[in-house]
Known about the structure:
Blueprint: H1 2-17, H2 20-24, H3 38-63, E1 67-69, H4 94-117, H5 120-141, E2 144-145, E3 157-158, H6 160-178, H7 181-184, H8 204-220, H9 230-244, E4 250-253, E5 289-291, H10 293-299, E6 302-307, E7 311-313, H11 318-321, E8 325-326, E9 336-337, E10 362-363, E11 366-367, E12 377-381, H12 383-396, H13 400-407
Antiparallel strand pairs: 1-5, 2-3, 4-12, 6-7, 8-9, 10-11
Amino acid sequence: MNKYKVIILSLLISFMGASCEDWLYDNVNEDAAHEVLPQQVLPVVLFYSAQLQFDHAEYGAYLTQTLTTGGRNQTSSFAYKSGWGDFLTMNRHPQWRRHFYDIGVNAKEIIDEAHEAQAWNLELIGRTLRLMSTQMTTDLFGDMPRSEAYESNSPHYDTQESIYEWMNQEIEELIGMYEDPTYTEAATNIPIDQSIDRVFAGDLNKWKHYTYALKARLLLRKLPNWENNAATCQAIITAVNRALEGWEDVLYRFDGGNGAQNSPWGEAFGSTEQGGLGWEGRGNMLNSAVPTKYFMENILGVFESHNNLKGWAEDPRILAFMSARPGPSGTSDSGTEMRYLDTNIGMDVSYKVDNYPTLFPEVDGKKVSVYTQNTGYVPLFLEEELLLIKAEATYWSGDKPTARSLTM
Length: 408
């Protein structure tokens, strides 16, 4: 009997010495991961960061009167496309969900797990993307949850002013870490390659310059009505210059294929309301979009009549955006022209969308637009934006000749 007691006691002691993790990971579902590593989450956050840019840009293309629709309906599920309808009638705006659910939750997972493992490279990238998403979201919606965003189902709404205070502190801490080899060259950093980071393949030097660009974008919000002074202008110029020292455009490239493997601006999503993400996605619907009079005349400088020597417009980039198409057959306007409409007035009864330029331009049957190919890219930040930010700062500092030169 005593022998059995000793055996039982030994087993009990061995059970007590085993960690909770050992027991929790026993008999796990073979078809589901019991643990998700931060390097496995980063591709998800990067993908949704690109999708966030599309969400904002797709709205912006209509709200800036670049594109319109050919229909006369004044109400639809896309209020920003149809007659400047009531935004409150829309079921959802994707930017909100994209920030809090798709990017925010997953970025928090990266940051928490990477910090615990001292994988500073992953923490830096995760925090940089979170900050980018935070600014874009508060710029659109104003006050929003931040400090208590994931602590309850009804978090406190922070003021936009306090959110900007946090972002300005966060950007300085991030830049300090990017500049410190203790973090960027730590032995505990997890190797990152192109399969994990489709933007920079884990190159923290490139991520650092992107972070300087985000700093310039943050500081730009102070002009002209908040802190419009020489110090602010110089801080913006300095941030832009630091970004440009080792700049590479921040592009998320798509391989093409099935579903979300295609660029959201590609023709795969050109004729559908639903994007490659199913119900939570949004197609570009460029097959039903029409260029506006404002965009064509005021921005591109379209000629009243086609001039074979100069092309269709003063801005030669028009051919990278669209191709002219024939008008209605049997009418006096049947020729091939770069047609356009005033915003939200609809087409005349004899016209169809096919009589207006295609936004998937072709030359000799080959797609030529770098912007709307299935294998295209979504930019998170371009050098052009940096130059325009610097132009704005030099303008308000009184250096108008430099501002003009940078703009040109």
